[in-house]
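Q: I have 316 residues here and want to know how they pack in 3D. Can you give me a structure?
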Amino acid sequence: MGWYESGIRKAKALPTKELAEHFKQIKYTQLNSDVFTGQVVADWQQMLDEFRESKKVQGVTEGTLYEHSLSLRNFERIVGKCNSKQITQNVIDKFILERGTEVQRTTLNKDIRNIKTFVIWCREHRYLNGNLKLKELKIEERPVKSLNDTQIKKLLNAATPYPAIKIRIMLALGTGLRRGDIDAIKISDIDFEKNCIATKSKKTKKNMWSRPVSAEVMSQLSKYIHNLDATQEKLFRTKFAYRQWRKICKKSGLTDFRFHDLRKTFCSLLAQNGVSTAVTQRLLEHSSPNLTNKVYTNVDPVLRIAIEKLPVCNWL
């Protein structure tokens, strides 16, 4: 007779059907016994609290903990507050299928990675048993949208009638910040002597108290602030104007171009100019270099330059 134990197939030959049936009953009792499996039953909230405290002790950043909590919150919303015995492969599959109808595959894969981290931790602490499988879905690679120098000039020229939008564009291209983080900048966060800005990411909760900014961008920023009311605290008093943004894109010949694509342009330009992934990842505050390379970097414009560097003449 054969059976599965912790995801591994095992078998045993017995001389008679009676013995086989008797062994089957014993093995069934063992496999469903907490004493045999060593599995500890815990409720959902207990596992969440212990998981978070354990990761804090390991030095995991608040930004990463926040990403984990978002994924686990979605897991709880879709499948409910499961105790350790109720988290099975069927429950995992249900979450992936239903969550997949709500978000794109990139976001779903992020959730899968976070849930997998939680499952591995639960196994290590004897809360989960068995061979639960969480595999990321394949994603069709799409070309990264980024602008070249000519397109950037056109975009900035088209934005001239709208100073607040133009300086937002300058900051996005010069720092790689997300739009929400740009909108949150206070004038007191800007240090013109050191050419840096103190920033805090709303998404990852990470801080960069001295984010470097080029002298040219700081010069444009200084001119913009000079025309503001002296009592104004925030850099932008008005919200982002989508109508103005669409007009600017249309005038500069850009179709289906999002403000977030300026962040990808920042990343791509750094890569095209030889900046390492580690540095770019730090500036973008990404948790993984894979995200920086796959989703944000366009190196197509420098492929020809790379090929020309091959010493072909030495081979002939």
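Q: Anything worth noting?
A: The mean pLDDT is 83. The beta strands are 2-5, 8-11, 190-191, 196-200, 207-212.
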